[in-house]
Amino acid sequence: MKITRLPPPPRTTRAFTLVEMLIVVTIIALLAALTLGGYTYAMRSSKRRLTSGAQEAIILALERYNTEFGEYPQPVGSNQMVQFPPGTAVYDTSGAACLYQALTGDGFDQIYGVTADSSASSGGGSSSSGTSDGKVEGPSEIKNKMFVEIPQTIFTRKGSSYILVDGFGHPFQYIKSLIPANGSNSSSSSSSNSSSTANTINATYDLWSYSEDEANTTKKSIDTLANTAISKKWIKNW
Questions:
Q1: For residue 98, which of 14, 25, 33, 227 sits 20 to 30 Å off, Cα-Cα?
Q2: Which residues have CB under 8 Å from 107's CB, separation 6+?
Q3: How many structural domains compose the chain?
Q4: Is the pLDDT at 231 greater than 90, yes or no?
Q5: What's residue 46's pLDDT?
Q6: What residue ranges in the chain does DSSP mark as E strands?
Q7: Residue-wise over 214-225: b if at least 16 C-beta within 10 A, else e?
Q8: Is residue 186 part of a domain?
Q9: Higher-confidence residue: 4 or 17?
Q10: pLDDT over 90 percentage in the chain
């Protein structure tokens, strides 16, 4: 007897349903959000640690400057507002430019009261114009170098000036007190720069970083006395 073999029935391929696809997409989106959130948090924490370390180094260098010259450096001006992309936030670079020159010895035109004649003994550089060139060289600059080693990550050039920057790439903020602890006006300040009204919280100087705060970059340290919430994200010395 002849046996006829019948072909096997065709296999049916089961596809994902719309509900299953939505579930998979949702899970992937949640995992991506968690990963991105963790990465963002880690990066922000790293930048804050770098900022805190740089700030401690600046504070130590400022004390060396004070010991060497009998006073803390004072910026020549204020409110030198510069925009730092990405974003539209603007920052005052006057204090950061003063700190760079005073603590590295590279130039002196951003330090109040320092001239070409006094640069060799008052924290200035050897350039006749007093501007920074990004190099620390010459007898006067080496003598006035407060940073033993200055890492490339904490200074940059913005426009025509070199400035000290935090871990977020933004300028450190620095204001020297015009009223010493004894309550009298600073003898090194001119009448136009002296004031009977406190301009800082500390009796010496205020030093801070706005860190990740891009909403209050035009606020000063003294503004936080009336509203402490302003400086909630700042890294500061008060």
A1: 227
A2: 100, 101, 124, 125, 127, 130, 131, 132, 133, 162
A3: 1
A4: yes
A5: 94
A6: 81-83, 90-92, 155-158, 161-164, 173-176, 205-209, 235-236
A7: bebbebbbeebe
A8: yes
A9: 17
A10: 48
Structural domain that includes position 33: 24-236
Instruction: Give a yes or no: residue 75 inside a domain.
Output: yes
DSSP 226: T
Taking each helix axis from N to C terminus, what angle separates 18-69 and 94-104, rounded to the nearest 10 degrees?
Answer: 50
Q: Is the peptide bond before 7 cis (omega within 30 degrees of 0)?
A: no
Going by pLDDT thresholds of 50, 70 and 90, the confidence category of residue 172 is very high
| b (16+ CB within 10 A) / e for 110-146 | bbbbbeeeebbebbbbbbeebbbeeebeeebbeebbb
pLDDT tens string 173-203: 999 999 865 544 444 444 444 456 899 999 9
| Strand order through the sheet with 235-236 | 173-176, 205-209, 235-236
Specify if 52 maps to a domain: yes
- Whether residue 109 has pLDDT greater than 90: yes
Give the per-residue pLDDT at 189.
45
Give the CA distances from residue 137 to residues 65, 127, 173, 192, in Å, rounded to whole numbers and listed in that order: 18, 10, 26, 34
Length of the chain: 238
Which residues, in sequence order, are CB contacts of 84 under 8 Å at separation 6+? 90, 91, 158, 169, 170, 171
108 within domain boundaries: yes
Looking at residue 140, its amino acid is S
Residue type, 26: T
Helices (H), 4-159: 18-69, 94-104, 139-143
Q: Which amino acid is at 28?
A: I
